[in-house]
Amino acid sequence: MIRYIVRRLVEAVPVLLLASFAVFMLVRLVPGDPASALAGPNATPEQVQQLREQLNLGGNPFVQYVHWLGHAFEGNFGNSIQYRLPVGHLIRTQLEPTLQLGIAAYIFCLIVGIGLGILAARSGFWNYVANVFAGIAIGVPTFVLGILLLVLFAARWQILPSGGWASFTDDPGLALKDLILPTIALGCITSAVLMRFVRTSLRQVLQQDYIRTARAKGIGERSVVMGHALRNALIPVITVSALQVGRLLAGALVIELVFARPGLGRLIVDGVQARDYPLIQALILLFVVIFILVNLIADVTYGLVDPRIHQ
Question: CA quadruple 222, 224, 227, 229: dihedral positive or negative?
Fold first, then answer.
């Protein structure tokens, strides 16, 4: 298992290099000029050119990439064009709210998706409930669901706060209240997708011969499902649950704006608007690293569920 993990980490290096190169070049294809945006509409061409030289925006892009990559390996992603602060500092200050929301939504997705999928695979009533839930969750966009939750629970009933953020280390109760609505809005669609895969996979496993044999031996239905069928049914589900991390990251950027939460979502939107190349490059590269790590965890989980996979 350790050899497999090391091999996957080594394989992730060229992926990171290719992703960093693609991001570095693609952000420069976005219409607009950072120097012009920063200088303002009243700046003269000479002032814009001078600012461009100060920001090191000229020259060969391939040489710039090599220079940026060398500093990135040292943990230095440059200074933000817009904020005039180190990019690493900006990301560290905004990372906690996004991770908080992403982890909460992922836990919500696993609990609701796997739990409802198990019930739907065994019961006609719960299958109907699951279909209704999936139809609503998948059919309603994330930001629309967030707005509806705000209108009902924050504006009309005033049960939960409409936005904001608090750290669990400062005020756990307030942090939990601030997380409820964004977590539901962000996690509904991913839990619906996961529920469908769990239901289909579990139904297929429950039709296998060894399941019939277990039932013929008089083993209780709960033990058959939880002890025998679920373990094998979760193998394809692990892949789907890992892929949902990308959807959660993308959705978190929107939900943070809807619920007026700080985080990487607002940071990347501001970066795109200002054509802040160093900030955009570092943020997207961070998302790539998170996605690679989650998929590595999923591969390790395969071996825990079925040790034959890595033999």
Answer: negative
Q: Determine the angle formed by the axes of helices 172-206 and 87-122, rounding to 10 degrees.
A: 40
Tell me if 212 is assigned to some domain: yes
- pTM (two decimals): 0.82
Nearest CA to 121 out of 189, 191, 193, 206 is that of: 206
Residue 220 falls inside a structural domain: yes
Tokens 């608090």 belong to residue: 166
pLDDT tens readout for residues 80-109: 888 888 888 999 888 889 989 989 999 999
Q: pLDDT for 199-219, tens place per residue?
A: 988 888 888 888 888 888 878
**Domain range for residue 125?**
99-263
Distances, alpha carbon 253 to alpha carbons 20, 72, 75, 157, in Å: 20, 24, 24, 26
Number of domains in the chain: 1
Amino acid in position 66: V
| Residue 79 placed within a domain | no
